[in-house]
Specification:
The structure is a homotetramer. Chain A has helices at 19-25, 28-32, 53-68, 74-86, 99-106, 111-118, 122-128, 133-141, 155-168, 177-182, 198-216, 219-238, 251-259, 263-273, 291-295, 299-310, 343-346, 348-359, 372-382, 394-397; strands at residues 5-9, 13-17, 184-187, 190-193, 279-284, 318-320, 333-336, 339-342, 363-367. In chain A, a hairpin with a 3-residue loop joins strand 1 and strand 2. In chain A, helix 3 (53-68) crosses helix 9 (155-168), helix 13 (251-259) crosses helix 14 (263-273) and helix 16 packs across helix 19 (372-382). Chain A folds into two domains: 5-215, Orthogonal Bundle (Hypothetical protein af1432); 278-324 and 361-399, no CATH class. In chain A, the strands form four sheets. In chain A, strands 5-9-6 form a three-stranded antiparallel beta sheet, sandwiched between helices. In chain A, strands 1-2 form a two-stranded antiparallel sheet. The first copy, chain A, is mainly α. The B-D interface holds B 6, 8, 13-14, 178-179, 182 and D 6, 8, 13-14, 178-179, 182.
């Protein structure tokens, strides 16, 4: 039976699926991704940002196929296709939004992913096509030699940058992803970039540099996300909500659950629904606060400290210390006339962007509008905010 | 206080809001539109189609402003801006999806709209800016002389055609909407089209002609919609669900409600979630079935008749007889060298498309996969399906 | 040696060429196409329309490859690739602009094409790769069984519609060309369309319907083209210009040649350069003039008649009677449940557009601004213009 | 008389012209820009890059109007509109291509611009609308207080970046130009940027950073340009061609002139026509050659030296030492909480890009394919190419 399928994607055009990928797509864990927004609460800033993990996964599959077809290993191509469709099935509702929460209560690394993939019916589909679940998981978490789905220049990031650009309307995420893929190839199983692809790789990095502050770390979506996380934490701690449930719930389930809660979580749900958000009591970058000190703090303790100092309820104070992640692109391998080198060693701009990642970093303390001033004052003391020369050391800060 | 706001829209670029429109936007009934998908279940066919009534309303405001600024009547411009943002606040979850249902149980015309607009806080915002709610409602329902929001060539349709194209990735909805607006002007309060705008108006009509079968009436979204409506009807009739609630619920609320129902509605919710949909037992156009006879039937009676004939449960049979709507563009006024004429009288293609609307029409009978064959056979008898010459008369068919 | 090449095309993305197609591309007759505008003088209306036959040929090659790869005949795929790159090498400067002129003075059918392909160095490249020139020519002129380059639904038209849209900025030419190609396949060597591709085929036809009057037959580019043709004819007849030269000249050569002419041709060149164009003395459609009578007239005789009647120089009167071409798409084969049928028999809109092609037809008489009125009056007499019912018979009019 | 005009631009949509701008547009010096390609010989690399100075000038007018309307000075708005349409009328054929040549033989600064604007008929149009030519010229050359057309963040660059992206198909030039303009305003007559526009300004700078090596300084277009310049220089020196003529010639005139030359210039013309270009004998960046030493050399002397050393004709050696221009964006004024500051002082990435401009710099020596090796060896000696640490000082290098 010809089980081929053609799906229209506004970003990449027509996507073709074969019988194997159609079967995976039809499995409930992948269908669930239809109901999980790619950008969590970013639609409160960018009204068009309602796209889902489902279409992103399709896009990753498209790009992964373009790249993987250069491998002379049909088996591995199947693994990679499966990995592309499955790479987000372990995500909780609102995408990354409650990840911190999940990690905290679930603990084991990649457990949620393994749960989602190894349970039927996904496992059955994989088995029926002779694809081993463990291999697929390795591709997803970056433990495969072949960094197509998760690596220095992976198609996961390529798709989300161009896709998030498309749906937010922010041009910054666009870069020449097709040229980048055309100029990537495999040495053995390792991805290397031909020299003519350097500009495209640089432009991908620059895209991220712009998308982070403009979209991914826009203060309004950070605030909404943190409000939501706080409400969920409250339910887990005070109302015996089982965090394992998040792995099978979708955005609707969790939002409706919150709406029906009495007290604090219900109030937060109403505030999110009506876009009545906490405001910034403090919002400063590394030029005013010690970023490496911040990274070592426990936000909850600081919330208590600030709340006490300001004389307000601790529920009304949210401390947001975003992590600073290593820029993986730096490590990408490039073929030069003098042999294979790291991208950061052949590209001036890439080398500079190490520090820029940090310059986009912002510490936030958020509160209801009415108490923003007192909370702000307390925060300044707590964080010892001052006019300072940048004094962080890159290696102390980046995780 | 400068309360201006700039919102990024992927379709029209930057949208500017002033204090009045920001206040309306911030009202809960408009914020609720963020959580109601523009195209209901169409994302089961087009994975990108997750856009909402909220962004559509912003887009309508943008286009309405472009057009209304040609009026020399600042008061009316404010009314029209309000109408653009509010024109969908009476919509139930999943947009049009359950309208039929609503009409049936709520009855009074425009009641849902009036309820949403006349109750606080929208009413307060309107009053504070000296805009009368009744005037706004008239613009929305097409009882105003000025057909900007609802008329022969209205901006509501313009926005949804280009927006639905953008998010589905289907090029058909694109047409030269900017030229069309540039070539529209007011004679008194009536919109007329300059001669140079005819091609643009024709192309809008053609867009609709293609978008209807490809997107709006795609059988998969019709089936999903009908399954959902059937589940909701069940809850209203059998489980005392109050249909008035739909006016304040959003897509999440209603979907989660269904998921938690036992029996038939819960099963439908799971099927929708996992995209296990009814299939077409019968799917024919006017060349095989008497369309004017169909329009007069009660689908419920036919469902019972077919179920009985096929020996299956009536829950497993859905009869879908879409209405055939009058093509409003036909009536658009055009300035010609021989005076103002109707568009259908100056444009050959527009005139022809009267009949085409009907050619895109399809009667559907839908059932679970397992019983599609028996239901199909019964349906053929019930509808007296045969090879026939087209014998409908336009005026008998169009409502 | 790896002689692969990657070329960036704004319309289709990256185009890949292999050694064979690179060699063809590097031949002078194909490089000449870089200097021949696709749309002749249309840039006088649409300033962006400066694209060339060269990029169009690359685009045709891209689409042709997509389609031809479905053939299981590597030899023929090579022929078709060659045909795509070479299909326009017989074009004179300004593309179609002077075709009529050429046909008149050169006479033999396809002679210019044959000359350009069979002479070295193109011939050498073909031979070196074992591709027969005669086969290539047959693909181009539509005498091959395989209508990829020239047929009922050919990729030549697909490319120019989307490309001309891109560069003019007119949205009308966009249609779902990728879907159309995906839904085309070969029965033997004949192209047939799967049922799911009908809407895409219809939309291609509609694109043409809109592009013709808006772009291809815009009166300003018709006028400029006709002025240019008149000047060239003058040079051939009065100044012994050898029309064979046109086959190796480009837009620059011919324009500079005209600029350096004394008298009439030089004046026309200056008028074109400064966009001082003739105006419409008469411009009417089939509702006012007998189109089938028009098709049988000799424009030169009518020009003389009108000039005499108006008392003006015959150089100042241009009669433009565009041909009405058969809509080839009508004949496209479609697979239906009842066997293979013609597109016009399964699609209502396609069937209707037969007549629409004629409704877009306009007879024009053009003159310098100062004498437009007298020439107009004389033209009305000459053409017996009146208010008439449409009375043409399709089969009498279409060529 | 209503002399308004609507022009379709693929980049910005519909452009509106009033009577004044229509009159300017209709003047021969502006019409001539239709026949001068914006990117010279870049279409040899990017086949779509056939756009002209004419459409660019329209685009600049569109953006300039958006910005200038924030000035409360209708007189100056008219000046700026005129400046936008006229800012390129002094350009020779092939845009920037022969500028160096022109400067060398014409000498006086801005003389070509002044000649084109102050002579009739442009002057007449300006006078008729009460606009002073001198003021217009000042806007163009950057001597006006109001840097709309020529300044730190000017609309000239904005338009060409997005336009060149559109026609080359290279995504790099896209940035959020609309946001940038929305966030610019006037303090007195000086343009300042609101804080929320910093990202948009940064992204413009980054666009340039990518467009320079990818498009503007692509070696193939550099080579073609240099070949052309060499041929023209030959004609001026050896064949008494009057360089003043370039100011009224267009791309066609000059190319056809070269084609008809015997010997060297004619051969160069044929090579350009058939894309048989010189190759890179040497192509190195500042990491291998002393960039500040290079900037002080006379290329002609080096060409002679290298030719002699290699034992080849000096016509076969082209030395290309591109200038390094100051990044004007650095000086843009930004409103911050601590007063107005320079962009380079509030943006890390902008500050870094000072050096990047240099990293994109390449010294080239070009020769016919056959002698590339000997010329390369001689060049290495002449330029003392070695592996070196970067040792340039920014202030020594940038002009």
């Amino acid at each position: 039976m010809n089980n081929r399928k053609l799906i229209r994607d506004p970003v990449h055009g027509y996507l073709e699926l074969n019988e194997f990928t159609v079967s995976l797509l039809d499995s409930p864990p992948v269908q669930r991704l239809r109901r999980i927004k790619q950008l969590g609460f970013s639609n409160l800033v960018y009204p068009g940002a309602n796209h889902t993990r489902f279409e992103h996964s399709l896009g990753v599959m498209y790009l992964a196929s373009l790249l993987a077809e250069k491998l002379d290993d049909e088996k591995m191509v199947d693994e990679i296709r499966a990995a592309s469709l499955l790479h987000d099935v372990g995500h909780p509702p609102f995408s990354h939004v409650s990840e911190g929460l999940l990690k905290r209560f679930l603990g084991k690394k990649h457990e949620e992913l393994t749960l989602a993939i190894k349970k039927t019916p996904v496992k059955d589909v994989l088995q029926a096509h002779g694809v081993r679940a463990n291999k697929v998981i390795k591709h997803i978490v970056g433990e495969s030699k072949v960094g197509v789905i998760h690596g220095d220049l992976d198609v996961d990031r390529m798709d989300y940058l161009v896709r998030d650009s498309y749906y937010t309307g922010v041009a910054y995420g666009l870069f020449d992803h097709l040229r980048l893929i055309k100029k990537m190839r495999f040495m053995g199983h390792e991805i290397v970039l031909e020299h003519e692809g350097i500009k495209a790789a640089e432009s991908m990095l620059v895209s991220r540099f712009f998308m982070y502050p403009t979209v991914y770390f826009h203060h309004v979506s950070r605030i909404a996300r943190k409000m939501y996380e706080r409400a969920m934490k409250f339910c887990i701690v005070e109302r015996d909500f089982d965090p394992y449930l998040l792995l099978s719930m979708d955005d609707s389930d969790v939002m409706v659950y919150l709406r029906h809660q009495e007290g604090f979580p219900g109030e937060i749900a109403r505030m999110l629904d009506e876009r009545r958000l906490y405001k910034r009591a403090l919002y400063v970058g590394p030029e005013r606060v010690d970023i490496s000190w911040c990274q070592k703090q426990d936000p909850e303790k600081l919330e208590e400290e600030i709340a006490e100092m300001a004389g307000v309820d601790v529920d009304k104070v949210i401390v947001d210390i975003p992590p600073v992640e290593r820029v993986r692109e730096l490590e990408a391998k490039v073929i030069t006339s003098e042999g294979v080198k790291k991208l950061e060693n052949v590209s001036g701009i890439v080398n500079q962007l190490k520090a820029f990642e940090i310059e986009n970093w912002k510490l936030g303390v958020y509160s209801p509008k009415e108490i923003v001033e007192v909370v702000g004052k307390a925060s300044i003391k707590s964080f010892n905010v001052e006019k300072r020369k940048k004094q962080y050391r890159l290696d102390e800060v980046i995780i």
